[in-house]
């Protein structure tokens, strides 16, 4: 069991505890006494976990509404958001009421944005059920939906009041989704945690190794907490969490979301690591070891998209300002830096082979 404190404009705890979903009221009630509550989830997570949560809340005196939508990244859009907030209004949820996001990053980002904006903001709790959500998306308060022009272009910073992570939910995750989570985990290794890379090299993360998964979730949440507490609204430092995302977001979008977030980030990191090798920041052994780490975790390292297309989409993402874009560049094994470069230089970082 781990309790990690997140220091931000509103502070909260991340509880990581096996079987926490069997006694959620003990964590929720001290923060929000019984009241109308909406649980937002998708159609793959809800059948597995929503009844258990709803029943416990109802037994404790909460009035529970549920909003369940089809799973997948294409649902993280403005139409779905509008449908959700219309539903919340129909149920006459008030400012004092509560929203619970139960699911992966798609549910968390969409429901978090609804919570950020409905009645100008209501409290919400993240219950991450995917590995990716546990290590990354449930923490730090970035909420958003995608627009036609790109990923997460309509969103808000809104911290949850609690993150309740039950790592046993990882057992029911499809294998491909487990790999997606590993993409973000390996990212953290390059953000000042070479010991994490070393650990995963000698002991690749396995879906049935719960103690290892728990330890890794805790490490990633602490790493994210450290960055978010220093730069909640991404004035600078927080952009490091975008390592692999400059082209990762492009790959997701160009594939019409057939390539999932963690996989796309993996390819984005591979491109950047090859560029780092070309620039002398890492040696060939380190490059090979990093790419092997990705493939050992069933993550892709190649893309068919052209440098022109990858750069075109990237230049419309949030790290582009005027004629420059801020990229996240490896400086050595286990470490990255922010670097602002002219748009014209971005294609140099699309290194598909060395
Ligand atoms: N806000 C942030 O800081 C942040 C950080 C990283 C990623 N993201 C966003 O998160 C999204 C990706 O999140 P994701 O990978 O969790 O995707 P996701 O929410 O689509 O979940 C992946 C799939 O796994 C299923 N699933 C989730 N938990 C399950 C479980 N326990 N058992 C069985 N099935 C389960 C879901 O139904 C879905 O089909 C992207 O939109 C990405 O942009 C946001
Ligand atoms: O929390 C952050 O900050 C991150 O950048 C985490 C990323 O893993 C995540 O994918 C995030 O949603 C990307 O944010 P964006 O601002 O680049 O859309
Ligand atoms: Zn990400």
From TrEMBL:
Enzyme class at the top of the EC tree: lyase
Key words of the record: Amino-acid biosynthesis, Aromatic amino acid biosynthesis, Cobalt, Cytoplasm, Lyase, Membrane, Metal-binding, NAD, Nucleotide-binding, Transmembrane, Transmembrane helix, Zinc
Subcellular location, record wording: Cytoplasm
Gene3D superfamilies: 3.40.50.1970, Dehydroquinate synthase-like - alpha domain
Domain 3-dehydroquinate synthase C-terminal per the UniProt entry, residue ranges: 181-320
GO molecular function: 3-dehydroquinate synthase activity; metal ion binding; nucleotide binding
GO BP annotations listed: amino acid biosynthetic process; aromatic amino acid family biosynthetic process; chorismate biosynthetic process
Pfam family, one: DHQ_synthase
Family matches, as InterPro entries: Dehydroquinate_synthase (IPR050071), DHQ_synth_AroB (IPR016037), DHQ_synth_fam (IPR030963), DHQS/DOIS_N (IPR030960), DHQS_C (IPR056179)
Residue stretches making up the 3-dehydroquinate synthase N-terminal domain: 67-179
UniProt-listed Enzyme Commission number(s): 4.2.3.4
Catalytic activity: 7-phospho-2-dehydro-3-deoxy-D-arabino-heptonate = 3-dehydroquinate + phosphate
Protein function: Catalyzes the conversion of 3-deoxy-D-arabino-heptulosonate 7-phosphate (DAHP) to dehydroquinate (DHQ).
Similarity section: Belongs to the sugar phosphate cyclases superfamily. Dehydroquinate synthase family.
Protein name as annotated: 3-dehydroquinate synthase
Origin species: Veillonella criceti
Gene: aroB
């Amino acid at each position: 069991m781990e309790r990690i404190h997140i220091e931000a404009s509103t502070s909260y705890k991340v509880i990581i505890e096996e079987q926490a979903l069997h006694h959620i009221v003990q964590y929720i009630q001290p923060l929000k006494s019984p009241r109308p509550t909406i649980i937002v989830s998708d159609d793959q997570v809800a059948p597995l976990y929503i009844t258990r949560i709803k029943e416990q809340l109802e037994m404790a005196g909460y009035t529970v509404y549920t909003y369940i939508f089809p799973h997948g990244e294409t649902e993280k859009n403005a139409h779905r958001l509008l449908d959700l907030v219309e539903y919340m209004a129909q149920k006459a949820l008030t400012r004092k009421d509560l929203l619970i996001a139960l699911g992966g990053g798609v549910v968390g980002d969409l429901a978090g944005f609804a919570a950020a904006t409905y009645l100008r903001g209501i409290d919400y709790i993240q219950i991450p059920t995917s590995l990716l959500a546990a290590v990354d998306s449930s923490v730090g308060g970035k909420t958003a939906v995608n627009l036609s022009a790109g990923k997460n272009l309509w969103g808000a910073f809104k911290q949850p009041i609690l993150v309740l992570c039950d790592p046993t939910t990882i057992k029911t995750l499809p294998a491909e989704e487990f790999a997606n989570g590993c993409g973000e985990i390996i990212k953290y290794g390059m953000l000042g945690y070479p010991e994490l890379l070393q650990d995963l090299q000698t002991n690749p993360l396995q879906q049935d190794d719960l103690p290892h998964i728990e330890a890794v979730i805790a490490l990633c949440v602490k790493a994210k907490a450290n960055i978010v507490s220093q730069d909640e609204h991404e004035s600078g430092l927080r952009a490091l969490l975008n390592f692999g995302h400059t082209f990762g977001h492009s790959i997701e979008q160009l594939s019409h979301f057939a390539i999932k977030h963690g996989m796309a980030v993996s390819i984005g990191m591979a491109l950047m690591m090859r560029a780092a090798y070309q620039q002398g920041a890492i040696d060939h052994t380190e490059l090979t070891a990093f790419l092997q780490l990705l493939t050992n975790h069933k993550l892709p390292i190649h893309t068919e998209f052209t440098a022109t297309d990858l750069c075109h989409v990237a230049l419309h993402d949030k790290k582009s300002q005027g004629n420059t874009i801020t990229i996240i560049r490896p400086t050595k094994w286990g470490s990255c830096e922010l670097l602002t470069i002219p748009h014209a230089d971005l294609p140099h970082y699309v290194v598909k082979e060395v």
